[in-house]
Design brief:
The complex is a heterodimer of chains A (94) and B (165).
Chain A (H helix, E strand, L loop, with lengths): L3 H6 L3 H12 L6 H5 L15 H15 L5 H4 L5 H14 L1
Helix pairs in contact in A: 2-4, 2-6
Chain B lengths: L1 E7 H7 L7 H5 L2 H8 L4 H23 L9 E3 L3 E3 L2 E8 L2 E10 L2 E7 L9 E3 L5 E4 L2 E6 L4 E10 L2 E6 L1
Antiparallel strand pairs in B: 1-6, 2-4, 3-4, 4-5, 5-6, 7-11, 8-9, 9-10, 10-11
Helix pairs in contact in B: 3-4
Classes of the chains: A mainly alpha (94), B alpha+beta (165).
Chain lengths: 94, 165
Amino acid sequence: MCDFKKIRIMKNTEEIIEQLKKIVKPYVKDQDAFDHLTETTDFINDLKINSANLVDIILDVEEIFDIVIDNESMERMLDVKSTLLIIETKLAEK
Amino acid sequence: MIGNDIVDLAVAEVESNWRRKGYLDKIFTMKEQLLISKACNPEIMVWMLWSRKEACYKIFNRQTHIRIFNPIQFECSEMVLEHTWFSGTVQFKEIVYHTKTEIKKEAVYTVAVENESDFLKIRELGKSELVLKKDSIPYVYDSELDVLKPASVSHHGRFTRIISI
């Protein structure tokens, strides 16, 4: 049987990136890097986000995607690519 | 090895809501949260602990070239007031770092070292100093000795501090 609920919950990568962009936007210090955001964009080196605000991004990701980011995953959340991977993995576990 | 970190308290107040639910749990251990809750000024304690973690992380990053966001694993001891600064230790796994933290001109500033004797060797540099990065790790060029010396740069809001050893 097809699991419709699961299909609805699973988001595609583009949708996740769009939501992630909305989350990081308020903390971005380099607007140009944000306008050209790709999977390799680094939150600190490229977007110049203050490290204290990385905590806000992690909390926002938890709230918006309704997932829990454990310390081990948090360690790697320094760029778009790893953050996407973590969100996708946590969503799949739901 | 050295690391430094500065927090502009006015900027921190506007940009970081540490009272937000879940915020402290993500970056501070239970022991550290206790230090915050019993502090006369919890806000300043939050940024003192944070700058100590950041300064020590810079040493870790310089030595290992590993980039990681794990502030909770750098656990701060209680601080002792010595002259004009607060000294303490920060433990990351088996490594113990030493920190000196001062509060002045609306800023919290920490200098961290691995060997305590290195505190005496630290030189404060002006903002105009040319900082070079090799593998994202900062150095300054010593023209007299013709060598690159390890440096640490911290910039937040209105403040910039550069040190070298």
